[in-house]
Amino acid sequence: MIHNETMNTAPNTYHLRGRFWIESPQGTFLGQGRVALLECIREHGSISAAARSIEMSYRQAWALVNSMNTHSRTPLVSSATGGKGGGGASLTETGEKAIALYHAVRADFDAFLAKRSESLTL
């Protein structure tokens, strides 16, 4: 029999991990990727620039923004049509609140996982 000393002396190294998202009656409303996109729109002032910064196609980014705006009572992102003068996008007050809500729930979720991990023994 091969004896591995680290098996007997290693502390509990099990940790709970998880992901969550907020759903509307129509489906996924807000999750980690969508929040990252919103934060990049805030930073760059453009859906196109935000998409490039997270290596997402403009088409996918636009579809996600459209989905969030459609599923929300009020839009999360306001945009102006591009062209010679350039377009742009910015977060609405609702968009800012959605990001804050997501991060607050994320903190609670992480705290729950950490607390439950303390008693995880196998």
TrEMBL record:
- Provide the GO MF annotations for this entry: DNA-binding transcription factor activity
What domain of life? Answer: Bacteria
InterPro entries (alphabetical): LysR_HTH_N (IPR000847), Molybdate_resp_trans_reg (IPR051815), WH-like_DNA-bd_sf (IPR036388), WH_DNA-bd_sf (IPR036390)
Q: Which Pfam families match?
A: HTH_1
Q: Which residues form the HTH lysR-type domain?
A: 36-96
Q: What is this protein called?
A: Molybdate transport system regulatory protein
Q: Which organism is it from?
A: Thiothrix caldifontis
